[in-house]
Model the fold of this input.
Amino acid sequence: MPLFSRPASAASRGAAGAKSAQSRRGLRRIGAVAAAAAVVLALSACGGGAAPQSADGKVELRFSWWGGDKRAQLTQAAIAAFEAENPNIKIKPEFGDWSGYWDKLATQVAANDAPDIIQMDEKYITEYSSRGALLDLSKYDIDTSKFDEAALNAGKNEDGLTGIAAGINAATILANPAVFKAAGVEMPDDSTWTWEDFERISAEVTAKSPKGTYGAAAYGTDEASLGVWLRQNGKSLYTNDGKLGFEPSDIAEWWAFLKELSEKKAVPSASEVVEAEAAPLDQSGLATGKNGLAFWWSNQLPALEKAAGGELQILRFPSKTGSSADANLWYKASQFWSASSRTKHPEETAKFIDFLANNTKAGEALLADRGVYPNSDVRAAIEPKLTPADIKVVKFIDQIKGELGEAPAPPPKGAGAIQEIVKRYTSEVLFDRLSTEEAGKKAVDEMKSAIS
Amino acid sequence: MSAISELSSIGRRKGPATPEEKRANRRDNKAAYIFLLPWLIGLVAITVGPMIMSLYLSFTDYNLLQPPEWVGLDNFTRMLGDARLHNSLRVTFTYVLVGVPMQLAVALLIALVLDKGLRGLPFYRSIFYLPSLLGGSVAVAILWKQIFGTSGLVNQVLAMFGVTGPGWISDPSTSLGSIILLHVWTFGSPMIIFLAGLRQIPNMYYEAAEVDGATTLQKFWRITLPMLSPIIFFNLVLQIIGSFQSFTQAFIVSGGNGGPSDSTMFFTLYLYQKGFGQFDMGYASAMAWFLLVIIGAFTAINFIASKYWVFYDD
Done:
C-alpha cells in the first residue's frame, strides 16, 4: 500500500469536483490564516512588551554592567546570593566592555527595552536622569542611613536620587615595580613627588629599559587626568552651574607638558598611544609590563594585578609643589546602581539594589571590585574577606582622606562626549597636526557645544 | 511591487475572461500575496517603515530618550557648518574614489590571469575569492589591525631590511591607506564577475585580430575592454554604492572612534557616533538621507556617463 495514497476526490474529477474544490479552498483559507497568525506571533515576540512575570509569581529582572571577566565572576556570585534569599526574583545578567556599553544602553532605552538595573557612570547619569530615563530611588525602600554622605550625594540631582553609589574611588597612578626593578630605577615617593619628578623618573626608566618599554603611559585618553591637572591649577573640569571650568590655555598647557613627556620619551610614541587606547584592561601597557606608571582608578588595581600576574602599587598623583596635600585628589563614586524608570517591577528592582548596597553577603561577593564600599557597616564586615589587592585599595582610600580637595562639580548633561573630544585632540597634538594652542581652542569650542 | 503585477499578468489571457477564469485569477493572486506575505512584512517592517521613520526623524531633534521635536530643516543647515562632517565626507570620498578603481583594476588583472586557463583554476578562484567572504568580517579587521600595528607583521618584515615602519593604522597619515588596502584586498566578487564576463567574449574576435597581426596589448584595448565594458560598469556601480556605505572595517580598525584624529572617520561611522554615542538621532537621520542623495547622484552620473563608454554588443 502506498504511503501517501491519492485522495479519491482527486482521482475522480466529476460530479464531486465542485464540492472538493470548495473544500480545498476552505483548507487554503485556513492555511492563509495560520500563516498570517504565525507571522504576527513571530513579530509580537520581537516586541518584548509583555511583563516577564510567569504564573507562579516569579519576577525576572535584567541587570546590565560594564567590566571585565573578574567583575563578571564577582557579580554573578552576588546575584546568586540574592536569588538564594529571594527565590521569587530571578536576575538576568547582561554585561560587556565599557566601549560598547553606552551605545547599547542608549539603543535599549530608545527601544523601550532598558534593563531594570543599570550600572551607571557619573558622566552619563545627568544625561539619563534629566531625560526621565532613571527611577527616583528615594521613593523606594532602599536604606541609605549607613552611607558615606558624599557618596550618597553624588547620586542625587534635580530628578531625585537616581543612582546609589556602588563604591568609592580615586584617580591614581598605578606603578609596576617589576619594570622599575628591571630598569634599576628607584620607585618614586608619592608623598613628595612633583610633575618634574614624574617626567625625570619616567624618562630614566625608558632609557634604561628594553625597546618598547616606557616609564609611563601617556595621559590624555580621558578627562580624569585632565581633571586632576586643572584642580591642581585652581580650575576644574566643570562648574556647579554645568559649564566648563577652564580656558583653552589651561588645556593647552596640559598638552604642552604631554608633548614634553613625549619628546623626552617618558611616554610611548604617538602611534603606540593610539594603539594602547583600544586595548582592554588586561592588555594594557601596565598589565603587560610595557609601562612603569599608568593612570587608572583605584578600584582597577585588583583586576590589573590579576592581569599583570604580579604586584602593583598605588601612587598619589604628583603635584606642582611636592606636597601630597596639593595633589588635590577627590573621592569619586566609582559607578552607580540605577534603575530604569520604565521597569515593570520597581519594588523588586529596589530590593535588589538595596541588597547590593547594604547586604554583607553582597559585599562579601563584590569585595572592592567597584571601589571601597560606601556603606560603613558592610565595609567593616567584609574586611577579613578582602584579598591583599583589595586591602591595598582600601588602605589608599583611607590614606588620602585628609588630603582631599573639594568635591568636584558633577558632570553636566552631554559630558559623555568629552572623553572622545579629549582623546581626539590629544592625538592631533601628539602627531603634530595641531599646535597645543589651536587644539585647546578647538577642543574647548567642541566641549562647550557638547554640554550646552 | 513589480513582481506582483508581473505575477498576476501571467494568468491573464487575451480576450474577455469567463467568470470561472476570473475566480481562478483572484485565487491565484491571493495565493501569490500569501506566499509573498513574509517578504512583504519584512520589507515594510524592516526596510520601508524605518526609512519613513528616519525621514521624519531627520526633521526633528530626537535624543532617543524623549519624544522627537519638530525642528524643520535645522539638522540640514547644521550639517553645512559641521567641520567634522565635512572631514568625514573627505575621508569617504577618498576611500571610494581611490579604493574602488584600485580594487576593480586588481580584480580585472587577476581575472585576466585566471582566464588564461590555468590548471587548478577552481582552486585559485576559490582562494582569490576567500578575502571577499572574510573582508567585511570583524575577525579580519582585527587581524588587519595586528598585521599593520607598530610591532605588527609588516613592520617586522620591514625591520629585516633595516626600515622602521610607522604604526600604519595608528598614524593619521597612513591609517586611511591601510583601510583602502583592506578594501582592495577583497577583490574577489568583482573578479568572479569579470571572469564570467571574459568567458562571454567570443573567441573569433581574437582570432580575427591575430590574423591581422594585433599584439596582446592591442587585443586587450580593442577587444577585451570594450566587450567587457558592461561588466565593468556593473561592478563599478555596485562597488561605489557599497563603498559609500562601508562601516565595519573602519569601526573595528579604529576601535569605533574613526581615529587617529578622525583620519578614518567615515561618513557612516560619524553618523553612528552622532546617533548612538551622542544622542543626536535626528541629526544622524538627516545624515543618512544626505548619504542616500549622494549615492543616488553618483549612481545617476554613472548611468549618464555610461552612454559614452559602455559598449553593448547587440
The beta strands of chain B are 60-61, 69-70. The first strand of chain B starts at residue 60 and ends at 61. The interface with chain A takes residues 27, 30-31, 34, 37-38, 41, 45, 63-66, 149-151, 166-167, 169-173, 255-257, 259-262, 273, 276-279, 281 of chain B (CB under 8 Å). Confidence is low (pLDDT under 50) at residues 1-12 of chain B.
